Amino acid sequence: MTGETGDTGAMNQPLQEDGSIEIDNNAVDVTTRVDALLDILQTSQSLAIICHNNPDPDCLASALALDHIAEEAGVEHIDIYHGGEITHQQNRAMVNVFDIPTESYAGATPSDYDRLAFVDHGVPGRNNEVPAETSVDIVIDHHPTDDVDAQYLDHQPDIGATATIMVEYLYALDLALDERLATALLFGIRRETLGFMRGVTEAEYAAAQHLHAKADTDTLRTLADSLFTGITLDAIGQAVLNRRVRGPCLAASAGRTSERDALPQAADYLLNLEGVSTTVVFGFIDDSIHLSARTRNTHVHIGEVIEEAFDDDGSAGGHREMAGGVVPLGPFTPSGADETVERIVTEAVYSRAFDALQEWY
Questions:
Q1: CA dist., res. 147 & res. 94, Å (int)
Q2: Strands 322-328 and 288-295
Q3: What is the pTM of this model?
Q4: Measuring CA to CA, which of 31, 109, 288, 351 is 20 to 30 A from 38?
């Protein structure tokens, strides 16, 4: 595995002074980690790479990178799967532009593969469609979460993007980066950190420096300028109209929508409102409430806020600056014919969100 890597000091900068990096509370040299990953891949004939539900650019780029590493390691059959739908306009554009061969997990059978890998998530049954009892061989993730278990585990919650970890792997393996992969990884890092403005670490800057010479800036610009769909714009508009503000906290309902990715876009957009430093946006999608939250307040851990408010009834949590969740509605699923129930559920979500936020302000 050889390629064009340049000065080896560039990608070592995010590591500790002794050449190690904190991985799941253990200092493990990146070369040691890569060797352990190769040991698994080189003894495998087939690999299923599972993206989380409604995968974002960080997840998609990381899957593409692992696919590349696995192919170079000699894995003969590799498939990439995702749960949910790819509805965000930039995510759809990314799949099309880079021709990412991802398909719905609905038709997958994990037992058909020698190895099962998760990228950008870590627990079966949580933000993915994999049965909870499934054993996972490889997990590479940067999200703060408990109960992560795998034969190979690289869990770095202090890193700003999973794509950053994948760049470290590619660099350590001395693999040549083509324009397609470099551009996808750089876009994934930029989107996950909101243009290096959210949750960014030294590692993201080092990775971006490594990727920049190979990336296609015109493609990056095209992806950044991807157009809204009418459904996305309607959902953001509903969130704007339904916003409620208490001091620096804002909560908003986007109503019923088919595009889950409109929620984080609305949460980011509403964070620009003067005087607001934390936003929680929610909407009804099929038979669940989906939530997305953001904060600029360094004293607030929005992942813990959302987990405290909603995790007992569903799955919720996230980072210090960004979080999300899904709460099944069960027998109280609102429908177009039962607007009263939907109003009751909406008021309950507003109340829970503000009550949880009050503990941090």
A1: 31
A2: antiparallel
A3: 0.73
A4: 109
